[in-house]
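Hi U.,

Before I forget, here's the chain from the pilot set. I'm dumping it here mostly so it's searchable later in email.
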Amino acid sequence: MSPPDSSLTILYADDRIVAIHKPAGLLVHRSNIDRHETRFALQMLRDQLRREVYPVHRLDKPTSGVLLFALDRETCRDLSAQFEAGVVRKRYLAIVRGHPPAEFTIDHPLASIDDEPGARKAPAGDAQPALTRGRSLALAELPVQVDRYPTSRYALVELEPATGRRHQLRRHLKHASHPIIGDTTYGKGRHNRLFLERFAVGRLLLACIGLALPHPGTGLPLIIRAAPSSDFMLVARALGWAAVAESSVTVPYGSGATAPGQPSQSFILPV
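Structure:
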């Protein structure tokens, strides 16, 4: 899916940082994984602002949502250190296969990966600790047989990665047997095709809806939020989740309600 040819939506800007809403299908910067691509968030924002900007973290090409840039090298170093130290809290929405518990933690080490062509895969023994916390916000069951069951279950989940491993959320949800819909690498093709045929949406249904961090200049708490994009909301609306998806964006950090009618429960996936 290609993003529209338009200016990037700016969510927040001051003299140190700028945050945009990255559309699905747009690379953050030039990469050998997509040699044919000619449009990148980094260059588009530089052209839009007519000044230098510096990326401090990344979102996968198929993921949409909040993407933060620094406006000078010192701020870039400060923010990069915050991300590396786990100071920045990141919140995502995803649509997944199955019905996860109301609250869950996925504690499963992940090996380093490099998707550059010709790169060597890290040995399995080199796996690094990786932790993701999540909540099920809404559930749906479609009267369509995709696997061996007569119906197909899906859920809207909120995710907070406590670590920042490559493709962490996508790999963790696969490990939990709740792959994200639209994930062509870690997901289930039959479920992806169902959503494409039923809702005409084939993108990865994963969106970064918020970042919370100390401002690099003042040290004061800063929260940057982004509502899910229109294609994500099209699916949420069709499944009866529009109000839940919209309200999840404004939930205060450090809190969160379980989905109505669901018992409070947890599971921890071990190594």
